[in-house]
Amino acid sequence: MSTDASLSVHPDRLFPADPGTRDIARRIYAGIADLPIISPHGHVPPQWLADDTPFTDPTSLLISPDHYVTRLLHAAGVPLTALGVDRKPLTEEQSRRAWRLFCSHWPLYRGTPVRFWMESVLHDIFGVATRPSAATSDAIYDTIAAALASDEFRPRALMRRFGISVLATTDDPSDDLAEHTRLRDDPDFTPRVLPTFRPDKYLEPAGRRWPDLLDTLAAASGIDTCDYPGFIAALENRRRYFVEHGAVSADHSHADAVTLTLEEAEASRIFTAARAGIATEAEATALRRHLLVEMARMSVEDGLVMTLHPGVFRNHHAPTAQQFGPDTGHDIPVAGEYTSGLRHLLDRFGTAEGFHLVLFTLDEATLSREIAPLAGFYPSVYIGAPWWFLDAPEAARRFRGAVTETAGFSRTSGFIDDTRAFCSIPARHDMARRVDSGYLAELVVSHRLDLDEAIETAADLVLAQPRKAFKL
C-alpha cells in the first residue's frame, strides 16, 4: 500500500449504487445535510463544555475514550494500557506512541463504521489529507495537535461548528449537576445540554457496592434509605431534581427487559435482606424487575421519557474489568426478549397519558418480531434507533426495512449517537442521514412514496421524531 495515499470522503458515500436512485438520494439528503443535530442520548462529559477546557492531545480525544476504536486494536494484540484506556493522563510520548499504533493498524477498520466516522473526523474536522499508516502517523498527529492548540477546537467552539442544538449527557442520580447549572445560566452558551437520569446501579440489589450506593443516595436526597419506602422516596426526590435541572429522560440498561410487581411487604423484605447482603440471587433479580416497573410509574408521574436498552453482558472479560473498569470494549450483546417481559409494565402504563418508552435492542431479530409490533400498537412505545454494535450503515438499512412496514416512521426515535467520542457526533449523524436518504430514495423509485413525501419524512427523522419521542 502506498504510504502517501490520500484521504478523501466521497460526496456520494453510502448512497445507492443505481444512478437514478442515487440522484434522488442526493436530492433528499441535500434538504437535511445541514439541519441541526439533536443528540438526546449520549455520554459526553458535561465538564468538557462547562469548563471549555482545551483537549490535551489527539489520543486522549479520539482513541482512549472510544471503545469502538480500542476493542479491535485489542483483538489484534495491542494492550489497552498502550492506548491510554486506564484513564491516566498521557505524556506526549505516550500519546504519540498510541497514535502510531492506531495508524499502523488502520487496515483493521476496513468496512467498519469506525472507518467511516474516523475518515470524516480526520478529513472534515482536522483537514487531514493523507491516509493513516505507520509512515503518516506522526504528520497526522502533528496536524491534529496543532489544531487542538487553537481556540477554534475547544469544546464549545466545536459544539457550535457541529451544529449541535441539543446534547444529552448521562448522569448519576446523586450528581449535583453543577456543570449543567453553569451551562444553563451562561448567556453566551445557547445549545441545550441536558442531564439524563441513569439509575442502573441503584436498581441492582445484587451489586457489591449497593449498600454504599444507598447511603450516597440518602446523602444526595436528604432522605433516609434504610428501608424500602425511604429508598423509593429518595429516587423520586432525585428524579424531580433532574427534571428541575432540565432532564427529559431516564436511561435504563439491565440484563433483561422482564418486569413484575411485588407486594409492598415482599419488596420491603427483599430490600432489607439485600441491604444486609443476604438476599438470594433470585430475590435480587425479582426486586430489580419490580423496580423497573416503579421507574415506569415515576415516569408517568414526573414526565421523564423512559429509555430501555437491555441485553448486554457487561464486563465480559473479568481481568480487563478489574484492571480498567467498565465501558472499555468488552461488553457483549446477548439475545433479547420484549413481548412477554414487558407485558406487565405495558398492562399498567402502556396507554398512560404522556408516558414514553423508547426501546433499544442489540438483537436485530427483535426489531421486526417484537419491538415494531409493540410500537405499532402502544401509544407509549417508540422504537430506538440502531445503537452500539448496530449503529453501522448496513444495520441502519436493515433497521428501516425491519420496522417501517409494521410501525412506519412516526414510531421511531430519530438517530441516537450514544457516544463518548465527541468529534464523531457529526459523522455518526451524517451516516444516519445518508442511509435514510438512500432508503427513502428506494421507496420513491419503487413508487411507494412521492418525492415530496420522502423529503418531508427525511426532515422529520432528523428533527421532528427525536423532539416528539424525547419531549423536546
What does this structure look like?
It is a single chain. The chain has helices at 19-30, 46-51, 58-62, 67-75, 92-104, 113-125, 137-148, 155-162, 178-185, 210-221, 228-244, 264-275, 281-302, 318-324, 343-349, 365-375, 393-407, 425-445, 451-469, and strands spanning 37-39, 164-168, 192-194, 249-252, 305-308, 312-313, 332-333, 357-359, 381-383. The chain has a 4-stranded parallel sheet, covered by helices on one side. It has a 3-stranded parallel sheet with strand order 1-2-3. The chain has a two-stranded antiparallel sheet with strand order 6-7. The protein is of the alpha/beta class and 472 residues long. Among the domains are: 10-34 and 414-472; 54-153, uronate isomerase, domain 2, chain A. The termini are far apart. α1 (19-30) crosses α18 and α10 (210-221) crosses α11 (228-244). The radius of gyration is 23 Å and the shape is globular. It contains 19 helices and 9 strands.
Quickly describe the structure:
The protein is of the alpha/beta class. It contains 19 helices and nine strands. Among the domains are: 84 residues; 100 residues, Orthogonal Bundle (uronate isomerase, domain 2, chain A).
